[in-house]
UniProtKB/TrEMBL annotation:
Membrane protein topology class: Multi-pass membrane protein
Gene Ontology CC: membrane
GO biological process terms on file: phosphate ion transmembrane transport
Protein name per UniProt: Anion permease
Protein location: Membrane
Keyword Cell division: no
Domain of life: Bacteria
Annotated TM spans: 44-65, 77-99, 105-123, 135-160, 216-238, 259-280, 300-326
One of the record's GO molecular function terms: phosphate transmembrane transporter activity
Keywords: Membrane, Transmembrane, Transmembrane helix, Transport
Pfam families: PHO4
């Protein structure tokens, strides 16, 4: 029976990564598509390839996810916790995707995992210090991304102040190809590792391995799932990110992609999971503020921020209910 439960865990984790691919990767290519620097199909292929490469490059974030919220070796219902967490995270991702809200898959997974652990084992099984470190990274990174986007855009305005806007934007359309690839690569280095970490969490909980090291088959399968999800696209979210916050021109897209990719890649090097959605959105808001504060549609931005704050408690509640249902039926 245990092997079938583990198969279910792997399937759900890869499904989460697949959904993450078309849910979050839409953020990575939204600016380049909206400015027509890249055709949608070309952008998706490039994003899928760079996400795959990024996912295979690092494993530090996976180890943080696998042990930061709770120690899987200490849990009686570790595998069941993972299943309920993934159901909660997937459900919220699909809901927000359907309504075109660029919500965070990272917040969804962290909140769902914490909720499932609390429902199954109690608050004392939460790794308080590790959980707080993850929350700090999730909360601080958007602020840093906003500042990065604002500073990069401000610098570009000074450098190209005397140039024709038409000439500048024509040149930056080519630059956006590079930054879209950089953005997608950084996304893969951080987001794909979350599914890797949750699979390793289940493997340790089931006593099939003792360390948080990520097996090669887990790396390849998670990277492939995210790449395939990316290939599906996420047009509703692309529309929100690329057109509804403010009118993005190529120079703005270049600045936003550069700022957010630097923040995400830095977090990856520090082994910290961050919300690529929050980082990219905040960078776009920073760029828009530097361009012209009044040009930013702050009402749309406000609705996005509300979704950010409610994601962790809602996904925690969904996963808790999921475990209570499992307990009522099987225990």
């Amino acid at each position: 029976m245990e092997i079938y439960v583990l198969i279910a865990v792997v399937f759900l984790a890869l499904a989460f990564d697949f959904i993450n691919g078309f849910h979050d990767t839409a953020n990575a290519i939204a600016t380049s598509v909206s400015t027509r620097a890249l055709k949608p199909r070309v952008a998706i292929v490039l994003a899928a390839l760079m996400n795959f490469l990024g996912a295979l490059t690092f494993t530090g974030v996976a180890k943080t996810i696998g042990s930061g919220v709770a120690n899987p070796a200490d849990l009686q219902f570790g595998v069941e916790v993972v299943i309920c967490a993934l159901i909660g995270a997937i459900a919220w991702n699909l809901i927000t995707w359907w309504f075109g809200i660029p919500s965070s898959s990272s917040h969804a997974l962290i909140g769902a995992l914490a909720g499932a652990v609390i429902a199954a084992e109690g608050f004392d099984k939460i790794n308080a210090s590790g959980f707080m470190d993850i929350l700090k990274a999730l909360l601080i990174s958007p602020i840093i991304a906003f500042v990065a986007g604002f500073l990069i855009m401000s610098l570009l305005k000074v450098i190209f102040a005397r140039k024709s806007p038409h000439t500048v934007n024509k040149g930056f359309r080519f630059g956006q190809i590079a930054t879209a690839m950089f953005q997608s690569f950084s996304h893969g280095t951080n987001d794909a590792q979350k599914a890797m970490g949750i699979i390793v969490f289940a493997l340790v909980a089931a006593e099939l391995q003792q360390t948080m090291d990520v097996p090669l088959w887990v790396k390849i399968s998670a990277a492939t799932a995210m790449a395939l999800g990316t290939a599906m696209g996420g047009w509703k979210i692309i529309k929100t990110m690329g057109t509804k916050i403010f009118k993005i021109e190529p120079i703005n897209g270049f600045a936003a992609d550069t700022g957010s990719a630097i923040v995400i890649l830095t977090a990856t090097f520090l082994h910290l999971p961050v919300s690529t959605t929050h980082v990219i959105t905040s960078s776009i808001l920073g760029v828009g503020s530097a361009k012209r504060f009044a040009a930013v549609k702050w009402g749309v931005a406000g609705r996005i921020v509300v979704a950010w704050f409610i994601t962790i408690p809602i996904t925690a509640l969904i996963s808790m209910v999921c475990f209570w249902i499992y307990k009522a039926i099987f225990l």
